[in-house]
Amino acid sequence: MSSEMLPAFSKTCNVERQQDLSEDGEENQKPGLSERFQPISKRQMKKLMKQKQWEEQRELRKQKRKEKRKRKQLERQCQPESNSDGSDRKRIRRDVVHSPLRLIIDCSFDSLMVLKDIKKLHKQIQRCYAENRRALHPVQFYLTSHGGQLKKNMDENDKGWVNWKDIHIKPEHYSEFIQKEDLIYLTSDSPNVLKELDESKAYVIGGLVDHNHHKGLTYKQASDHGIDHAQLPLGNFVKMNSRKVLAVNHVFEIILEYLETRDWQEAFFTILPQRKGAVPTDQACESCSCDKKFARVEGGLNSDSSEEEDKHELDSPHEEEKQDKESSTESTVNSVPY
Question: What mean pLDDT is reported for the chain?
């Protein structure tokens, strides 16, 4: 082999060697039969089937969306601009007049409640928020001393609370940002009775669910802080079977109802649950007077019957004497011989 042919031969050998190496590498990279035909689990099979159905129904979904848009457009064209019965939601929201009255739920009693009661308070606060959003005269709603177990429970079970609107949720105590002269603590133990609401004031509701374990606590706190206190005029309009202690949301809703109607009695009987056995005081007085009259009549009947019994008891000895005489005469007649 000549010297001129040697470089060309070595070059071709190198090329063939590189091709063989690359083919070996590709063969090594190809999955084996065992790897290529691995069994698919039922869950993976279901996912694949769903994905396939989703892809197949893409056009159908698109068509349905178009039809829905057309239907809604036709409904809007056929619908009048505003409902005559006033049931249009947007129209109602335009009629809303916000009250300047501030209504505060004081959550500073967190350490006095067990988790069960904390959850109840959370539900009551949710109810207050919902009712205030729906009210025709919504108040300036404050949630103060917010923290501890209550905040933890809200974070775990109601994460949407951070997006609530028209509410001021503050970790501070209400006394830190509201002047003392503007505060009135609502407590059933107060000797002062509200006649009407002053919308320039801030009314405080104790956020406490304690099942009467801490009687007079809210009244004591108001007195200790030198804050004005009062109770709702419940006793002037309502006679109840139970104590005059209401849930947080009941007090809140009664105030909302009063702002709308300006009538305490209507507000009480609209909001109070039936289990409280509430009746108007005038009806309660009438029933009391009827009961007294009935008792008097019963007493009179009892006295008459007792007199008759006494008479009967007095007459009975004479009757006994008569019977003795008759029996004695009978005995004497029988004893006479014929």
Answer: 77
- Is there a catalytic annotation at residue 210? yes
Q: Where are the domains of the chain?
A: 102-282
| CATH 3.40.50.9100 for the 102-282 domain, yes or no | no
3-state DSSP of the chain: CCCCHHHHHHHHHHHHHHHHHHHHHHHHHCCCHHHHCCCCCHHHHHHHHHHHHHHHCHHHHHHHHHHHHHHHHHHHHHCCCCCCCCCCHHHHHHCCCCCCCEEEEECCCHHHCCHHHHHHHHHHHHHHHHHHHHCCCCCEEEEECCCHHHHHHHHHHCHHHHHCCCEEECCCCHHHCCCHHHEEEECCCCCCECCCCCCCCEEEEECCCCCCCCCCHHHHHHHHCCCEEEECCHHHHEECCCCCCCCHHHHHHHHHHHHHHCCHHHHHHHHCCHHHCCEEHHHHHHHHHHHHHHHHHHHHHHHHHHHHHHHHHHHHHHHHHHHHHHHHHHHHHHHCCC
pLDDT digits (tens, 9 = 90+) for 270-298: 998 876 666 787 765 555 554 554 445 44
**pLDDT at residue 1 is higher than 60:** no
Catalytic-role residue among 85, 210, 228, 304: 210
Categorize the per-residue pLDDT at 323 as very low, low, confident or very high, splitting at 50, 70 and 90. Answer: very low
Most confident among 34-43, 76-85, 113-122, 243-252 (mean pLDDT): 113-122
